[in-house]
Write a structure and sequence with these properties.
Shape of chain B: globular
Shape of chain A: elongated
Number of domains of chain A: 3
Largest sheet of chain B: 9 strands, mixed
Structural class of chain B: alpha/beta
Oligomer: heterodimer
Radius of gyration of chain A: 30 Å
Number of helices of chain A: 15
Strand order of the largest sheet of chain A: 1-2-4-5-3
Number of domains of chain B: 2
Number of strands of chain A: 12
Structural class of chain A: alpha+beta
Radius of gyration of chain B: 26 Å
Strand content of chain A: 5-15%
Distance between the termini of chain A: 41 Å
Order of helices and strands of chain B: HEEEHEEHHEHHHEEEHEEEEHHHHE
Order of helices and strands of chain A: HEEHHEHEEHEEHHEHEEHHHHHHHEE
Chain lengths: 510, 408
């Protein structure tokens, strides 16, 4: 299925074939890696059968486990007894001598380079035009550790790491099913990288799988370093605030998406999984959603939906009320605000913008700041935002409350893309409220909802299954007790032709 | 390129422009009390604005020590809205009526023909809310506003909003707002809170039948609000005492004041009084029969009584006979006063303040039929009978009187 590694610019003779000429073959490899300038390429002369069979072993430093080469490649080679028939040397070596898990016979330089780069060792034999590549890969990686962003109180405590193999193993451990498919594709023309597309066959929509694969195939670029960049290549609308993909660092969350018929993309060097397609609800639900009891999770959902609205609307509503609709405020509050506003030199709009930007700066600084001096940011921030600004008559105290509750609410939204969307939308609403008051806010709300309802992530409407309404509801807004839930694919294109045709997987209907 | 310009221009529109009525909230002067008086000139009205100073008493953050809690000024103009415009030439802030909760009307102005025109035309302004409370002051409204400074409430709006809650408990005044005024003034008598800062100490009576200014009071806040001003067809025609106002509320089908404390003659020791709380737990049932030549009105008022104190120290809780005596006393006393009040409304005011017109109106198929019937006129000869259903609910937490001295 996978595409063959495509040509590289700096290796001109890449598609050249190996020949009988041993010298020529080794020179090809030396040249490909600019040996001896490049010291990473390691070689070792090997011989067997009292020197009648000789060859060179190549590997790249840092990509292989050297003890594996010693015990599983070199040792069996040296201990070889009995001269093989002519022309069957490679066959015999590959099938009955070398002890590594994967052996490949290689005829083209291009493949040889690719294998070497991926941690295989390569054996070139005299008078043979076929090289043997044995899997001895071992790249450095960190151990599986706890999630840093998607924290849960109750639930698995492991997160994806930078190694794709480990990530796949984390997923395989959760879905022990032969229908879990893993297809590999390569992206990047100059520096190719592998992308692994995972889905559960029969659950994920066939059309969808095809579409995702086409999208990945269609990428034409020199290099894609990791998933975060791949995400930007395959997302539905580049210029939209609304995200159309989702990243998770939790294998359990990724698994639940897999089971729901979503498609997962993994890449080397990316400690997360990319999930497509998504709906608003995938972004809204948290990792903990299925682990808490029914009451608790629904309480959480009420809090988070409130938080979303507070985070978007509080500053704009305050602005609209205080400049256009003062009659809405109870007199006590109104007079308290008016009294403190009287000595503030700037209009409400600039008060809000000033403090909102301060908050955003604080937030950004909190991420960029070296962790050694991190704790100070809290103190400085509290001082800037709170007491000092008020005492200097720069802002009125109520603004501090407005911005603080807004900021706090925005932290409730865990997904980074959704979080950004809400924070940027907030400024949009502030401007429109300054322009037209509540009338403007309502107009903008209508436009925003209309736009979001029209959005599609890989042809899946953003608010489905609520709008357009279809399928038995899986409890998108409020969750049902677990025993009432069944694993139904979240969306299926075939719905437009007939009823949901995909089989249920692991149905738990009581 | 066009998109780029759009991105630059759109936010600047939002930032630099805005609707015309956009104004920061501290730039407004919030009038919380409005006074209306008859002007010396014809077709003019003296409008008094009491503008609250936000910096006094609202927050500890920003306090202006030397400023008064409110600014009061009177403008003579043709109506409220033009007075507001004129006042803007004097007051440093744009006068805003959206927080206005109370309108004080001088009695002299209320009794003039022009009152209805002024009030009626004011509601065209969206800032004038129909929830505003109406108060008639015995003296000129401007005098009332100038004199009425509460000792406990620095901020005038708080004074009026607290007073409003008190009134619900006492029932001495009707709850009168602008909306009810427009609903009822053409159909029946409309009662408005009656207030005064002038004391009238001669008319001290032993009962509760006080009007504003007559309550025996020493020290304390200057304004008394008790009793009601009676309006008919947009014009004030008389007053009711606090006690009469209570009875009016009792006879209404549903009243906002549902309980109050009253005192009655002690049936055993006639020179002593016994204090009870009267509760109207259920709605008053009113039946209006418009078929006869003179309409018949049958009223049944369920009253629950809680005995609060009996200074005569007689034990009423123990014997049924004494309870019956007490019930009868309350019934006879109330009934007599209520019938007297009904007679007064029929003969003196020629209309009813009990909102019975709503029940009479139901009996007609069309509005025209009702209007032809002329309820106000028919009411003057109506046969009204009131039944009081009195239940004694409790005698307080201590049933027996204490054994002190000659306690019986």
């Amino acid at each position: 299925m996978s595409k063959e590694p495509s040509s590289s610019r700096n290796q001109t003779k890449n598609d050249s074939l190996f020949t009988d000429d041993f010298q020529h073959n080794s020179t090809l490899i030396y040249e490909a890696f600019s040996y001896p300038t490049n010291q990473s390429l390691k070689t070792r002369q090997i011989s067997a059968l009292q020197g009648t069979m000789r060859g060179i072993l190549f590997f790249l430093e840092g990509t292989v486990e050297e003890t594996t080469i010693e015990t599983h490649v070199m040792k069996p080679f040296y201990e070889l007894s009995g001269k093989p028939e002519d022309g069957k040397v490679v066959d015999m070596l590959a099938n009955s001598v070398l002890l590594t898990t994967a052996i490949r016979e290689i005829v083209r330089l291009q493949d040889a380079v690719h294998d070497l780069l991926n941690g295989n060792c390569l054996i070139l034999l005299e008078n043979e035009k076929i090289a043997i590549s044995a899997n001895t890969a071992s790249f450095e990686k960190r151990v599986v550790s706890e999630p840093t962003v998607e924290n849960v109180v109750r639930g698995p405590k492991e997160a994806f790491i930078e190694s794709m193999a480990v990530n796949q193993s984390l997923l395989r451990r959760q879905v022990k099913d032969s229908r879990l498919i893993c297809e590999n594709m390569t992206v990047g023309d100059v520096f190719p990288n592998e992308v692994s597309i995972m889905y559960i066959k029969g659950v994920a929509d066939e059309k969808l799988i095809k579409e995702v694969k086409q999208k990945v195939e269609g990428i034409q670029t020199d290099v894609i370093q990791n998933l975060s960049i791949l995400e930007q290549f395959i997302e539905s609308r580049t210029y939209s605030l609304v995200p159309s993909t989702l990243m998770t660092e939790r294998p359990d969350r990724a698994t639940s998406f897999l089971l729901g018929g979503h498609i997962l993309l993994l890449m080397e060097n990316s400690p997360y999984a990319l999930i497509v397609p998504i709906t608003f609800w995938s972004l809204f639900h948290t990792a903990e959603d299925q682990y808490l009891r029914w009451t608790n999770v629904n309480f959480n959902r009420i809090i988070s939906i409130l938080a979303i609205f507070i985070a978007i609307f509080t500053p704009s509503i305050y602005l609209a009320v205080s400049t256009f609709h003062v009659e809405m405020l109870p007199p006590d509050l109104l007079f308290a605000i008016a009294a403190t506003r009287e000595i503030v030199p700037i209009p409400v709009l600039w008060e809000i913008i000033l403090l909102e930007f301060t908050f955003e700066i604080l937030r950004e600084a909190g991420i960029r700041i070296p962790s050694v001096i991190g704790p100070t940011i809290g103190i400085v921030g509290a001082l800037i935002l709170g007491q000092a600004a008020v005492q200097a008559n720069l802002v009125s105290p109520i603004i501090v409350i407005v911005v603080a509750i807004t900021g706090l609410s925005s932290f409730v939204i865990q997904d980074l893309s959704l979080n950004f969307m809400i924070r940027i939308l907030r400024f949009f609403f502030i401007f429109i409220a300054n322009f037209m008051g509540f009338f403007g806010i309502f107009l903008a709300v209508a436009c925003t909802f209309a736009y979001m309802a029209s959005l599609k992530s890989f042809n899946v409407p953003f608010f489905s299954p609520l709008a357009p309404y279809f399928q038995p509801q899986k409890g998108v807004v409020f969750r049902k007790p677990v025993w009432k839930q069944s694993l139904v694919p979240f969306f299926s294109n075939s719905r437009y032709k007939k009823k949901v045709s995909n089989p249920k997987v692991g149905s738990r209907d009581d | 390129m066009r998109v780029k310009w759009l991105i630059i221009l759109l936010p600047s529109f939002a930032l630099l422009s805005g609707c015309w009525d956009k104004i920061e909230l501290e730039e407004r002067g919030y009038a919380v009390v409005l006074g209306l008086d008859k002007s010396e000139e014809d077709h003019m009205v003296d409008v008094t604005f009491q503008i609250e100073n936000p910096q006094v008493g609202s927050t500890s953050e920003s306090v202006a020590q030397s400023e008064p809690p409110s600014d009061i000024l009177t403008i003579t103009a043709t109506d409220i809205i033009s007075a507001k415009e004129l006042a803007n030439s004097i007051v440093s802030r744009e006068i805003d009526l959206s927080q206005l909760q109370t309108i004080i009307i001088g009695e002299e102005f209320a009794r003039s023909d022009y009152f209805n025109n002024i009030i009626g035309s004011s509601i065209r302004d969206p800032e004038i809310r129909r929830k505003m409370m109406l108060i008639v002051s015995k003296e000129k409204a401007s005098e009332f506003i100038h004199t009425n400074h509460s000792k406990l409430e620095t901020r005038p709006h708080k004074y009026y909003s607290f007073m409003r809650d008190r009134w619900k408990d006492t029932g001495y005044v009707p709850l009168s707002d602008l909306n009810r005024y427009f609903q009822r003034t053409a159909n029946a008598l409309f009662l408005v809170i009656y207030a005064s800062t002038e004391k009238d100490p001669e008319t001290r009576k032993s009962s509760d039948s006080y009007k504003a200014g007559q309550v025996p009071q020493e020290a304390g806040d200057p304004a008394q609000m008790i009793g009601s001003a009676v309006f008919q067809n947009g014009k004030m025609i008389g007053t009711l005492t606090g006690e009469e106002t209570r009875y009016v509320l009792l006879l209404r089908k549903k009243s906002i004041a549902n309980h109050y404390v009253d005192s009655f003659k002690d049936p055993i020791e006639n020179d002593r009084k016994i204090s009870v709380r009267l509760l109207k737990v259920k709605k008053t049932s009113v039946k209006v029969d418009v078929e006869k030549a003179n309409p018949e009105v049958r009223v049944n008022v369920p009253i629950t009584v809680q005995v609060l104190s009996s200074p005569s120290l007689h034990n009423y809780a123990n014997t049924k006979e004494r309870q019956r005596m007490l019930k009868e006393e309350i019934h006879d006393d109330l009934h007599a006063k209520i019938m007297k009040l009904i007679k007064k409304t029929q003969e003196e005011f020629e209309g009813e303040p009990f909102v019975w017109f709503q029940l009479a109106r139901r009996e007609f198929w069309t509005m025209d039929a009702y209007e032809d019937y002329d309820w106000q006129k028919k009411y003057q000869n109506a046969d009204v009978q009131v039944e009081l259903e009195i239940t004694i609910e409790s005698f307080g937490s201590q049933l027996k009187p204490p054994h002190v001295g000659s306690g019986k």
